[in-house]
Amino acid sequence: MSFTLPPLPFEKSALEPHISANTLNFHYDKHHQAYVTNLNKLTEGTPLSSKSLEEVILESANNSERVGIFNNAAQVWNHTFYWNCLSPTGGGEPMSDVLALIERDFGSFEVFQEQFKNMAVSQFGSGWAWLVFDKGALKITKTSNADLPLAHGQVALLTCDVWEHAYYLDFQNRRPDYVDTFLKHLVNWEFVAKTLQKA
């Protein structure tokens, strides 16, 4: 068994003008594929090669001898999750059930947007901003590099990739504009709702 690159849930040009096909040519075809390739090399011939991606992540998290395995496995998971968080018809307010929880835990959708943006913009260096379900409540968090909520007992509902390769070709150094665009035009709230139901 080997790990494979999952297909994108949309055409590469589908997110334009917000995220270009050129960005996806690098982000998906080069970066995401490299994590898959490296993970297969690192786990080949080991018991981890027959485990699920989530099992590999949990078994390698906080293990100094498996840092490379964790980083690549987590980045495969993170990117696959990120693609599903994007939609050509996304952005704006979520459907009523998700909106009700956001209003319950953040006070208003506007406060949620502000806090999520601040978390994404304030992540120093490479990483991710997340909306998670943790102990019965929605929370906003951020992780560095490949780290992810799964390794901390949280359920990821939404993520914004703030590694520079996610946005630099389209937004250069304007990370706040990229995060604004993500929230206003790209968030796949249907995916968030389905993930929340499973949680």
Which band does the percent of strand residues land in? 5-15%
Regions with little confidence, pLDDT below 50 for 5+ residues: none
Q: What Rg is obtained from the alpha carbons, in whole angstroms?
A: 16 Å
Shape, principal axes of CA atoms: globular
Query: Please, what is the average pLDDT?
Result: 97
Q: Biggest sheet, in brief?
A: 3 strands, antiparallel
Distance between the termini: 28 Å
* Strand arrangement, major sheet: 2-1-3
Number of strands: 3
**What structural category arises from helix and sheet content?**
mainly alpha
CATH topology of the largest domain: minor pseudopilin epsh fold
Helix content: 40-55%
Tally the helices.
8
CATH superfamily of the largest domain: Iron/manganese superoxide dismutase, C-terminal domain
Strand and helix map with partners:
Elements: H1 21-43, H2 53-60, H3 67-84, H4 96-106, H5 109-122, E1 127-134, E2 137-144, E3 155-161, H6 168-171, H7 175-186, H8 189-198
Antiparallel strand pairs: 1-2, 1-3
Report a brief summary of the structure.
It contains eight helices and three strands.
Defining traits:
8 helices; Helix Hairpins; 199 residues; single chain; mainly alpha; Superoxide dismutase; 12% strand; minor pseudopilin epsh fold
Describe this structure in words.
The chain is mainly alpha-helical. It folds into two domains: 21-84, Fe,Mn superoxide dismutase (SOD) domain (Helix Hairpins, Orthogonal Bundle); 96-198, Iron/manganese superoxide dismutase, C-terminal domain (minor pseudopilin epsh fold). 50% of the residues lie in helices and 12% in strands. The protein has helices at 21-43, 53-60, 67-84, 96-106, 109-122, 168-171, 175-186, 189-198; strands at 127-134, 137-144, 155-161. Strand 1 and strand 2 (137-144) form a beta hairpin. Helix 2 packs across helix 3. The longest helix has 23 residues, at 21-43. The mean pLDDT is 97.
